[in-house]
From TrEMBL:
This is SGNH hydrolase-type esterase domain-containing protein. Residues 1-23 form the signal peptide. Gene3D superfamilies: SGNH hydrolase. Keywords: Signal.
Length: 354
């Protein structure tokens, strides 16, 4: 009799537990439910190397205490930490699903770190860049099949009215966006080639802005405000999936310039804060911030781990050596380094789907 009673009690508590668990899961954001499923899948030990790799990525999503949700559960995000300890911020919309498998167009804005010598009239490009091979957009479209629309231009700043640059650099992000509107906005030549769901807008700019400014601390807010004005205009013509790359710390690593390091950190911190604010105001966007800063720092600190032999000198000054051994081709990242960035970005974007 006692054993039957015990079984009944256990069954009752089991049913209650299942119901409570279901109710709890129902109130969680999409990202939190993903994490719970991930934990269940990875709870048991398994020697499968693919599962181990998946779990290492997936369990790093465990930042539930930092999730933010609006009252209608429209706004939620996770900080995702990759294997190499570089922190990237993911802001996912509940109304506009980010599906990397359906991304067919990579639309790029930026400076010489991203430029591929584009003809803005027909959007063809030679592919020439400072890596002396392929830079990150060219590698990324190899990792994930996409058509590249590259508006980046060497020497570009965010707003030329805010930053004085040499006269031959007469293009900025605002002009790049202008070329985009003229080519790809409604009723323009390439308008039917893309839509809000199958396109990823990638922006990596700000390096020259920080390097060229003299009174940087007082002007970074103004520069990042201008950046997000341009992003807002892109949003108005359909940008819903936005990838931002934080700016490099190459100068402060090589020169050991702590002031420059602090300026870069402030700029990157502003990007995060502005992205969160933009996301709150536009909850139908997906914003991904890739942490280039800490990725490069990790590569520099673990040069041989990444199969480099020289992470300090420029290859152009040592052309008798193998370019593949160098982190820097000149003042830009080498083909090898760009491939590492592109693969890491590709893994991050794939992890959102997984």
């Amino acid at each position: 009799m006692n054993s039957k009673y015990s079984i009944i009690v256990i069954l009752i508590f089991t049913i209650l537990f299942v119901k409570l668990n279901k109710a709890f899961s129902g109130n969680l954001s999409k990202n939190q439910r993903l994490l719970l499923r991930c934990k269940r899948r990875c709870a048991n030990k398994n020697n499968n190397r693919y599962l181990k790799r998946f779990c290492k990525k997936c369990l790093s999503l465990d930042m539930l205490d930092k999730n933010k949700n609006s009252e209608n559960n429209e706004i939620s995000y996770n900080n995702i930490f990759s294997e190499n300890k570089n922190s990237s911020l993911i802001l996912l919309s509940n109304s506009t699903k980010f599906d990397y498998n359906k991304i067919e167009n990579l639309i790029v804005f930026g400076d010489s770190h991203s430029a591929v010598s584009t003809n803005y009239t027909d959007m063809t490009y030679t592919g020439w860049n400072h890596s002396y091979g392929k830079n990150w957009p060219l590698h990324l479209i190899n990792f994930h099949n996409m058509k590249l629309w590259n508006y980046a231009k060497g020497g570009s700043v965010i707003d030329e009215k805010l930053v004085i640059t040499p006269s031959y650099f007469k293009i900025d992000l605002k002009k790049q966006c202008k070329y985009f509107y003229e080519n790809m906005s409604k009723r323009k030549k390439f308008y039917k080639e893309w839509n809000k769901n199958n396109s990823l807008f990638a922006i990596w700019i700000g390096n020259i802005d920080i390097y060229c400014k003299k009174k940087v601390p007082n002007e970074i807010d103004e520069i990042t405000n201008s950046l997000f004005k341009s992003i807002n205009k892109l949003y108005n013509v359909g940008a819903r999936n936005i990838l931002l790359l934080s700016i490099l710390n190459g100068g402060c690593i090589l020169k050991r310039d702590m002031n420059l390091n602090n300026y870069i950190l402030k700029f990157n911190d502003n990007i995060v804060k502005k992205s969160e604010q933009f996301f709150k105001e536009h909850p139908n966007t997906n914003i991904i911030i890739y942490d280039t800063f800490n990725k490069l720092k990790d590569i520099y600190s673990n040069c041989y781990k990444y199969n480099f032999k020289d992470c300090t000198n420029f290859w152009v000054k040592n052309k008798q050596n193998n370019l593949e051994d160098y982190l820097w081709s000149d003042s830009h990242l080498s083909d090898h380094a760009n491939r590492i960035l592109a693969e890491d970005i590709n893994n991050l974007l794939n992890s959102i789907n997984n």
